[in-house]
Amino acid sequence: MTKPNTSSLSNLFCIACSAVVILGRTCSCLQFTYPNFNASNRDDFRFSPGSAISNNSLQITPSAGNMTHRSGRVVYAKETLKLWNSKRTALTSFRTDFMLNILPQNGTGEGMAFVLTNNLPLPSNSSGQWLGVCNNQTDGAKTNRVVAVEFDTRKSNEDDLDGNHVGIDINSIKSFRQYPLNNLSIFLSTGSDVWVSIRYHGTLQLLQIFLVQYSIRGRHLFQGDTYIDLSQVLQDDVYLGFTGSTGDTTQLNQIKSWNFTTVDIDVKVGRGRWRKVLLALVTLLVFCISLFAGLFMWRRLTRRRRLAYRNLEKKIDAHGPVKFKLRELRHATANFSPTRKLGRGGFGTVYLGYVDRMNLEVAVKRVSTDKQADTNRGEKEFVAEVNTISKLSHRNLVKLIGWCHKKGELLLVYEYFPMGSLDKLLYARERTASSSSMSASTDTPELTWKRRYKIICGVASALDYLHHGSSKRILHRDVKASNVMLDAEYNARLGDFGLARVIQHDGVTHHSTQVVAGTRGYMAYESFFTGRASLDTDVYAFGVFVMEVVSGRSPSNAVAAPLADAHRGLDVEALRRREGLACRRPFARRRV
């Protein structure tokens, strides 16, 4: 069964409550507010041994003396929560907000929980993994009559997700629903405040949990929704409170403030108010019709974009690279800041980024879709690059880590190479010398003949894999120095598959296209006449690349950059030149 949208249901719940306040009768059953805690509040609560009020907070577990292997419980003692409304027509709706602070003492563990229970006493032997909720003998027993929202700070149970999560427990410490927090940068046991809001919608039987934590990096938010029929677990008079525990390691489990309120909705309406009810219903009906008409028009206007997005996702292999969220990549690149710009690749701009959850520097390629005419082409390039690279694995190919397509943004995430592309290193001294009257910088790494030879062999190995080693033959169609990345050991990594196309191992050696693909200077002669890409056109581009690396001269530049080891590598240079020229022969079948 598909569950309704919880945010919309929350809004409808608020509207319904407001309408009933006007047309029906409401009464506030239970409400209290504690902005902090002091000695005068002690009689309002029932404390288990070791629990207390200190530092203006509820100390759920002991805050002094022997703190290891202890459990504690603090329960609101002035009144119980009535599970049903006054007419027993619906479960009571409530909201509770509290400020949680877990301060490690000699490590972290075990955790604490907000509890709804019919049993007031703290279970014996409920320290450690039991969080004061139950113990080894009672775990899972229906007689526990407890629903807990746990804030776990240690993985003590094999069923625990990790040592930093929120869980929902019913009569057992084994959570039937768990939510991780590490990926949201929310950390429970750092000694910083965590604002918690728990809301239960009785008519919907919907439990919502919200967490907010602030850090120097900003505001971090969590929301978790689940459906629970409390009447299947609890009896009518329910105690509210907190439990917690420690184990070998200890922490202070503190509640710094606490608010609670319920609304008992009596949906029975007096006979004299039927006119008002009818008028309100008609007004609401007109409003809903207008709203749905507006939504229908909006959906029609955006339908094409959504369909395009779905089609794009279907084209990308479901078992391919990681799908990132747009906000995560915006955060990683400082919202695509110009200061993070690494350069332009095939059909897009590349930015330096840092992915927190992977602890990894990445290169994020933002595919250009500025014009409507370019949008379709951009999406085609995007799909080609994702599908092509995700199925390849070779030491001389750039690794694709993930992708994202949201709000018109087409993004590709690659591994990052601090050395950059080969062309920047190949012409670094030439650029430095031309931009200054002084001699070229000696800090620029030298491309020795040994390194150049290694780079050429690496690119050749990558092309051989694309042409003959993968399950389907792949034409790169844009082999050039700027598409070759270098790692710290000068290993070449061929990348930028924006123009890559797949051909079958069935004797077909070319791929037709309406647009001549590639970069001028690297394109074979026949490409301009036939519009076809083939293995031979890749070989031609490789030949130009070899000549470029050996001579230090760009195909579009008549002036050569200084050669490495000029007096010691003439034989090697001549050999590489011959190989490059052999790959550039005008007749495709004579290329080697």
Descriptive account of the structure:
The protein has 592 residues and is α+β, with helices and mostly antiparallel strands. It has four domains: 6-268, Jelly Rolls (Sandwich), CATH 2.60.120.200; 273-315; 316-416, 2-Layer Sandwich (Phosphorylase Kinase, domain 1); 418-592, Orthogonal Bundle (Transferase(Phosphotransferase), domain 1). The chain is 26% helix and 28% strand. β20 (348-355) and β21 form a beta hairpin. α7 packs antiparallel against α9 (535-551) and α9 packs antiparallel against α10. The chain starts with 5 loop residues before the first helix and ends in a 9-residue tail after the last helix. The model is unreliable at 1-6, 20-28, 436-442, 511-515 and 564-570 (pLDDT under 50).
Alpha carbon gyration radius: 33 Å
Would you tell me the structural class of the helices and strands?
A: alpha+beta
Overall shape: it is elongated
Kindly state the percentage of residues in helix. Answer: 25-40%
How many domains? The number is 4
Total strands: the figure is 29
- How many helices in DSSP terms? 10
Under the CATH scheme, the architecture of the largest domain is: Sandwich
Give the averaged pLDDT, no decimals: 80
List the uncertain runs: 1-6, 20-28, 436-442, 511-515, 564-570
Strand content: 25-35%
Task: Summarize the main sheet.
Answer: 9 strands, antiparallel
